[in-house]
Write a structure and sequence with these properties.
Residues 153-218 form the HTH luxR-type domain. This protein is an alpha/beta fold. The chain is built from eleven helices and six strands. Helix 2 (37-47) packs parallel to helix 3 (63-75), helix 8 (162-172) crosses helix 11 (207-217) and helix 9 (177-184) packs across helix 10 (188-202). The longest helix has 15 residues, at 188-202. The N and C termini lie far apart (44 Å).
Length: 227
């Protein structure tokens, strides 16, 4: 069955543009639109989309509150609703809060159509995606504002092997599985296994939470150079 998508943006022209892009792909079906967070929550409950393509800055209920409410509702049902945030990074200072609210990732609004479609597939499969070109910039800018919501996150890192800690560090720097595999000279399948182990041991939902956890625990720090 095609991946059902709900479009949420307060700008009708943007919704129309995204609809045209998504409906060009047989694997994707746009099941509805919403102009603000309140409409998004109502539409998500009514239409049961696989993926909500969510704007953040909207009048009334914004995308963060809508994401939190939709995912809280979905958690009490047997539906697996995923939220993929689209944002204009240079002016939007709420991306991290959206990720904390449970969004499965974010992309910039000027993302190429093929990357948008690929991201929707990734999120629909239950994985997370963060635009690689802005992961480091985002976390360097915001990580100092992130109070820990878990008791002493560094303690939980003791469960990781040395190789798993290295994978977490590279993941937090925005490297893809393929890039991590090349860096560590292992197969991409091995990297996927390590990432899965990291998520399981730390009790995290996806790669996005892993990145935030790595910054909170001090695995990587804002402004730290790559090596």
């Amino acid at each position: 069955m095609p991946i059902s998508v709900l479009l949420v943006d307060d700008q009708p022209l943007l919704r129309t543009g995204f609809r045209l892009i998504l409906e060009s792909e047989p694997e994707v079906s746009v099941v509805g639109e919403a102009a603000d967070g309140r409409e998004a929550v109502s539409a998500a409950k009514r239409l049961l989309p696989d993926v909500v393509l969510m704007d953040i800055r909207m009048p009334g209920k914004d995308g963060i509150d809508a994401t939190r409410e939709i995912l809280a509702w979905a958690a009490g049902t047997d539906r697996q609703v995923r939220v993929l945030v689209l944002t204009t990074f240079d002016i939007d200072e709420y991306v991290v809060e959206a990720l904390r609210a449970g969004a499965s990732g974010f992309l910039l609004k000027d993302v190429p159509p093929d990357e948008l479609l690929a991201a929707i597939r990734v999120v629909a499969e239950g994985n997370a995606i963060v635009a690689p070109t802005v992961t480091r910039r985002l976390l360097d800018r915001f990580s100092h504002q992130l109070p820990s919501t878990r008791a002493r996150p560094a303690d939980r890192l003791e469960q990781l092997t040395e190789r798993e800690r290295e994978v977490l560090r590279l993941l937090a720097r925005g490297l893809s599985n393929a890039e991590i595999a090349r860096r560590l000279v292992v197969s991409e399948t091995t990297v996927k296994t390590h990432v899965g182990n990291v998520l399981t041991k730390l009790g995290l939902r996806d790669r996005v939470q892993a990145v935030v956890h790595a910054y909170e625990a001090g695995i990587v720090r804002p402004g730290e150079g790559d090596d």
